[in-house]
Amino acid sequence: MDYKDASLPVSERVEDLLERMTAEEKIGQLIQPFGWKAYTRNDDGTIRITEEFKSQLMEGGIGSLYGTLRADPWTGVTLANGLSPREGAEAVNEIQRYAIEHSRLGIPILFGEECSHGHMAIGATVFPVPLTIGSTWNTELFQSMSRAVAAETRAQGGAATYSPVLDVVRDPRWGRTEETFGEDPHLVAEFAVAAVRGLQGESLDSHDSLLATLKHFAGYGASEGGRNGAPAHIGMRELHEVDLLPFRKAVEAGALSVMTAYNEIDGVPCTSNRYLLQDVLREEWGFDGFVITDCGAIHMLTSGHNTAGSGEEAAAQALKSGVDMEMSGTMFQTHLHQALEQGRITEDDLSKAAGRVLELKFKLGLFDRPYADPAWAERIIGCKGHVALAYQAAAEGIVLLKNEENTLPLDPNVGTIAVIGPNAHAAYNQLGDYTSPQPPGQIITVLEGIRSRLGNTADSRVLYAPGCRIQDDSREGFPHALDCAAEADVIVMVLGGSSARDFGEGTIDLRTGASVVTGHTESDMECGEGIDRSTLTLMGAQLDLLQEIYKLGKPVVVVYINGRPITEPWIDEHIPAIVEAWYPGQEGGSAIADMLFGDVNPSGRLPLSIPKEVGQLPIHYNARRTRGKRYLETDLEPRYPFGYGLSYTEFRYDGLKIEPAVIPIGGEATARIRVTNTGARDGAEVVQLYVSDLAASVTRPEKALKGFQKVFLKAGETQEVIFTICNEQLELIGLDMKPIVEPGEFRIQVGPDSTSGEVASLRVEG
């Protein structure tokens, strides 16, 4: 059998295998049942494969399993009934071995896992969410983090991940804002490339490489009203310039899997959008991987979008439009054979889709080396090196929004510190959505980080009170919180939101701050997938608690832990120091504590604009010049602009030069600028380059990010930062919907954020 000959080209092996397959076996390659339902765990950590899985395998095969090692309240997999890193690898091996040995052709299974900010399995490292990563503006760090995620996942047999999320967020009320890198297509595109390089590595068949899946294709972050899966009202030019750019760059970097979005664009669901999946993705961009749906998306074609009147019609629409695999639905499994009999699809359609799936299985090395190494899984998952990466990502992602009168950093000898708020000591609130159950002591909270930083004196100097919950209006915790605050010399208020699902960890006694084990969690979830909001204010009694504590006249620092921006004008106006940490992951408490005490100089910069109030939305910095006039009640300027963030030192920009100042179309110029650390502390600065096209054949954004570099400067040090400006930085989508560079004047801005910096001119001549 040629397909088993590893010396032959992949194309020949695929062709040989397809010729041997029945229509049912081809359909089997296009389905992906829930992996955690394929087995049950025995008391000794071994597994028993279910009869349902065996039966489905015999009926036509199973191409892929979803979330075999996923652990969370949705799957019902807990610390008690879940698998350790070694056990997980052994379980995947057993399932794989059964599939190979008990199917007619011995085709291996592709195990797909969730890895939004770490492998979603018990024991894996929990990194900061993508919004925190976007705030680092450090793509090299993210590439290293992605390599770590790939290593941990592949060590257990997972060969594909459903990340990175490349949605460009346009309305942060959307609950999945935390999963994005921000509001700018160039910033998202740079992280997209880093993700593909990090996850897929040098070779897909490596023991530490993972198939990256770009999602959600496309326009998912531009949904109406920030509601999950709502229509995206996008013109074709904006679609290509904004929403599709990160996907195109990731495909150019070698990405080989794409996931369709739930939403529709101009009446056409993305799951059956031939223009997106065939014309753009495959024909224009040359994508040669496979396309997978989001969970249950094909079913929405009959119940939701209602573009199909039957299951057969829905399955045919998706397949004919370019979908190759259905994630965790039953439409392909149930209806594709009937669609074939009805003539809605052909066997050639099945062969194309199955061939794409099989080709990736060969490239991943699954036919030749299908099994994981349990000993390696035990060593690499959650290792010290990965924990250190999680800390660095959290530390670099913290954004200092306000620091009047040098309130920060705190003096370690300040005296008594009160750490107050619902997120001060709530481990799961620090992690974001798509998180597995965590063993005790795995997550370092802000309270624990501060206590650890102060060492032996912490017991007598650090007071704690939750004060209130995220959503509950109860004030029963106020007296204890006010008592703690009254005794303190400085107060750290840890407020924000939560994407924590019910992990059965119990609750907190607001009157004492003690943990109460109840067998369920009193859910405070106000962010995450499917949790969209109509406002961006703090929920519950949080603002009331802060205002009561503020009346004591003590120094107050606010630390936000959350998955979307917070708009609270009173806090912005009254609190001298405000820190935005988003969901910083398992090491977040240590990183925040080190930043508060000055061991870490904050270098995070905002990857999205924070409005003054929700009525300003949408408020992304790169709006077109024609965005309209101001409101009666307020202007169109954000509270904190895109790219903004403070440091414990100061940076000076000077000497911007564009050389040459005039270039032809297709030519190249360099932008050079000197950046000096004028303060007394070492620090990192994010140098940002923006381009404005002053006159064009179509309306343009007032400015657009086209380059950035994160540079470390010692106190007093000067460094010249150089950017290249060429077609990529100057082009637009013209009247004919083709990329073009038009002659004319361009304004080049280089500085610390989207609103300030040195400015120079560049002229392009035709």
Automatic annotation (TrEMBL):
The keyword Hydrolase applies. It holds the Pfam family Glyco_hydro_3. GO terms for molecular function: beta-glucosidase activity. It comes from the Bacteria. GO terms for biological process: glucan catabolic process. InterPro entries: Cellulose_Degrad_GH3, Fn3-like, GH, Glyco_hydro_3_C, Glyco_hydro_3_C_sf, Glyco_hydro_3_N, Glyco_hydro_3_N_sf, Ig-like_fold. Transmembrane segments: none annotated. Residues 685-754 form the Fibronectin type III-like domain. Keywords: Hydrolase. Belongs to the glycosyl hydrolase 3 family. This is Glycosyl hydrolase family 3. It comes from Paenibacillus solani.
